[in-house]
Specification:
single chain; about 325 residues; alpha/beta; inorganic pyrophosphatase (n-terminal core); Diaminopimelate Epimerase, Chain A, domain 1; 6-stranded mixed beta sheet; 11 helices; 12 strands; globular; binds guanosine-5'-monophosphate; binds manganese (II) ion
């Protein structure tokens, strides 16, 4: 489906539930905040409801204070807008509020998206869901104001790794140039998101780097974040984001893997990053997860040593 179909779908309804995935990052939060601005400007009613709280460092975006954890009473939505989520499992507890006959509008850029909605707009070539919301503003001919410009910029900046990843296109830069013209300050955005780390989180990074291992051929690098390390450093869960990039940054490494004991009970959260030789969306898919060809993740049952063994075996297989 195209942006036009989604525009028509949004026009048809007046009360929306907006949500995104568990453990939301910049794109999930930014695209929800921007969508909220759009719906407000269109005179629609909505509630934003997420499984997990908004990370502290993303709360500067206007509208994030309206993202609730509980469904308000007496709110009967006509359609649900699910953003940046490849499947329904990814929205966690919000599933409890989705009925069998709910109209779902699925807006996402994950290649692994399973088209779970009545309306499915999936653009794997887009850098971010934020870029898709930008297209919606244009389709509705709604002027982009400062609040939504900030939210869209945050979504795009974080999902492109500050315009470094392979999903960065000339369109990405044209859009962000427009957002800068509206008033977004790139340095301020970068500083707010990437220069507010704590000493605890930085100590955790130090611990995690000590665990880094690399295969004999130098193509797979992996590292751990254990519960013990989190306890010792008193770091936040948010502080574990970005650690995986140190694996991929090594010359010759094709796949980086981060194993985190931060999943739900008895599960290890596994993240993958690739330089392009291996489609890590497929690799994560083998363990029930998904994502993008160059960045993906899954959650695997078992102890960290066992999960490491299984995952590395599969990764080596894919490389050979
Ligand atoms: P991260 O490793 O930063 O958590 O996630 C990288 C990418 O993989 C994101 O696009 C995210 O949506 C996807 N991803 C991470 N964990 C999971 C998971 O458990 N299931 C699925 N389907 N995708 C995941
Ligand atoms: Mn995204």
């Amino acid at each position: 489906m195209s942006v036009r179909t989604i525009k028509q779908a949004i026009k048809r309804f007046n009360k929306f539930l907006i949500t995104s995935h568990i453990n939301p990052e910049g794109d999930a939060i930014g695209s929800q905040a921007a969508m909220a601005c759009l719906l407000r400007k269109l005179g629609k009613k909505f509630v934003m409801l997420d499984d997990s709280p908004v990370p502290k460092l993303l709360r500067f975006m206007r509208g994030t204070e309206d993202i609730s954890k509980e469904m308000p009473h007496n709110f009967n939505y006509q359609a649900v807008i699910i953003m940046d989520s490849p499947d329904l499992a990814r929205i966690g507890r919000v599933n409890d509020y989705i009925k069998k006959d709910s109209v779902i509008i699925n807006i996402d850029h994950h290649i692994s998206n399973v088209n779970f909605g009545k309306y499915n707009w999936v653009e794997p070539d887009y850098s971010s869901t934020g870029e898709m919301v930008y297209d919606l503003f244009k389709a509705f001919k709604v002027k982009i104001g400062m609040d939504e410009a900030v939210a869209l910029y945050a979504a795009i900046m974080t999902d492109t790794g500050s315009f470094r990843y392979s999903n960065t296109s000339s369109k990405t830069h044209r859009i962000t140039a427009e957002l800068i013209d509206i008033g977004v300050k790139p340095y301020e955005m970068h500083s707010r998101i990437y220069e507010t780390s704590s000493i605890q989180d930085t100590n955790l990074l130090g611990e995690a780097l000590q665990t880094m291992k690399i295969t004999d051929d130098g193509k797979i690098a992996w590292l751990w974040v254990t519960k013990e390390m989190l306890k010792k450093t008193n770091a936040s869960l948010e502080g574990t984001e970005g650690i995986i990039n140190f694996g991929r940054s090594i010359g010759g490494v094709e796949i980086a893997v981060l194993f985190r004991e931060t999943g739900t009970k008895d599960r290890v959260k596994v993240s993958f990053r690739s330089k392009g030789a291996v489609d890590v969306n497929k690799l994560a898919g083998d363990f029930g997860g998904g994502g993008h060809p160059a960045a993906s993740g899954c959650s695997v049952l078992g102890k960290i040593e066992e999960v490491e063994k299984k995952v590395l075996e599969k990764a080596k297989e894919m490389l050979s």
